[in-house]
Write a structure and sequence with these properties.
InterPro entries: Endo/exonu/phosph_ase_sf (IPR036691), Endo/exonuclease/phosphatase (IPR005135). This protein has 325 residues and is of the alpha/beta class. The chain is built from ten helices and nine strands. The strands form three sheets. A four-stranded mixed β-sheet has the order 4-5-6-7, with no helix packed on it. Strands 1-2-3 form a three-stranded mixed β-sheet, with no helix packed on it. It has a two-stranded antiparallel ribbon with strand order 8-9. It is elongated, with a radius of gyration of 38 Å.
Amino acid sequence: MSSSILKVANWNANSILKKKLDLTNFLQKHIIDIILDRTEGQKGGVAIFIKNSIKHRIMKSLNFKVIEGIGINVETSSGNISFISAYHPGANKNMKAFANDVVTLTKLNSSYFICGDINARHRLWNCANSNEAGKVLNMIHRKWQRHRRCSSLKNKYNSLCYQINQKLEETRNNMWSKVLISMNIEQSNKNNIWKFVKIIKNKDKFMPPLKENNQTLLSPQEKAKVIKKHFETAHFTTYNSISPVERKVESKVRQFNSSNSSLPLDPGLICKTSEIKDLLKKIKNRKSPGLDNINNKTLKKLPPKALIFLNHIFNCCFKLGYYPK
């Protein structure tokens, strides 16, 4: 292999045909070398996807009684590594055969990774309850613990775990120190810390794929364009259109003009300033303004002189039969 790093993933598809697009997007996004897959339902089968550039061979020595499994051997600079995708049906009642299959899986000569769905639950693994398959796995694990006789390897393992934890903690502390130093609270914007805390607390929400014109959109850029187009179409204002309310008002005005051909000379007899003031008191503050962008709260605060001017305008409109648009 040209690279010393293998990126391996386990995918429990539960019908790979229905999630083909999601799987393709996942592989491209994370640049996976090997993926071990579990398909749909009992006897649905297992699969392993591997890049053509990686040398491998199929394991033909896997003979199981109840477990469905497939494996490959991959040649690496550190030696051969076996990757096995396994599935144990939850309806299986033959626990003896299941135990023999598990022993077969764990007695491989080379290093190995076993992924899949074994349908084994146990309270020691933080499951709500235990089933028979979980009890079998726990028993095999306890036997393995009792028969570990190489104390030097165990001490070396514990030492390596301690060193790894120390390095991880040191790396995390260094990263936090760099981030905190980079935020200069003496700048003009003193809310950098609170913005940073808000970003950390807000978790990313997964957005499922969108469909438009029989096309599935996966990338955030494609989804954003479709959502933008939808909102532009939904909130497009047609200024030249006449609403049903406007038609009703125009009809009432025409009826008023036709029934009042000769109006009094005094406009004050048609509309009064007190009527305008009473109507303004009744309108609600939290209503969106019209095309003039004057909200109701502003209209309520008009001085008496402005109400007098409005009164003259309304009366002249009634008298002349002319209503400006």
